[in-house]
Amino acid sequence: MAHQAATHRTTIELDVDALEQARELLGTTTIKDTVTEALREVVRMAKLKKAADLVRGGGLRELNIVHADDLPHLRRDRS
Questions:
Q1: Is this prediction's pTM over 0.70?
Q2: Residue 16, H or E segment
Q3: Three-state DSSP class for 79?
Q4: SS (H, E, C) 18-33
Q5: Residue 27: left (phi > 0), alpha (psi -120 to 50), or beta?
Q6: How does DSSP assign 30-77, residue by residue?
Q7: How many whole angstroms separate alpha carbon 19 and alpha carbon 24?
Q8: How far apart are CA 35 and CA 40, in angstroms?
Q9: What is the pLDDT of residue 60?
């Protein structure tokens, strides 16, 4: 069974040009789908940015996730 997201009905004014550009980029057909997908994309991009910042800052070692610099050492230990 698919997860049903909670919804909220509202009335908002939208920039028609921005809406049409988003609709083309996202491949959506309705205003509802365009706004929903645009919001999901914003969340996805923010999470990716946070992950990239974590990688750039060396945070992967703090989370006990393997870093690329560790791979040669780990590969030697397997033989």
A1: no
A2: helix 16-26
A3: coil
A4: HHHHHHHHHCCCCHHH
A5: left
A6: SHHHHHHHHHHHHHHHHHHHHHHHHHHTTHHHHTTPPPGGGHHHHHHH
A7: 9
A8: 9
A9: 61
Please classify residue 60 by burial: count the beta carbons closer than 10 Å to its beta carbon, then call 0-12 exposed, 13-18 middle and 19+ buried: middle
Query: What are the extents of the domains in the chain?
Result: 16-78
Residue 40's alpha-carbon distances to 8, 43, 44, 46, 55, in angstroms, are 15, 5, 6, 10, 23
Between 5-9, 15-19, 49-53, the lowest mean confidence (pLDDT) is in 49-53
Buried b (16+ CB within 10 A) or exposed e, 16-54: eeeeeebbeebebeeeeebbebbeeeeeeeeeeeeeeee
Q: How far apart are CA 73 and CA 61, in angstroms?
A: 14
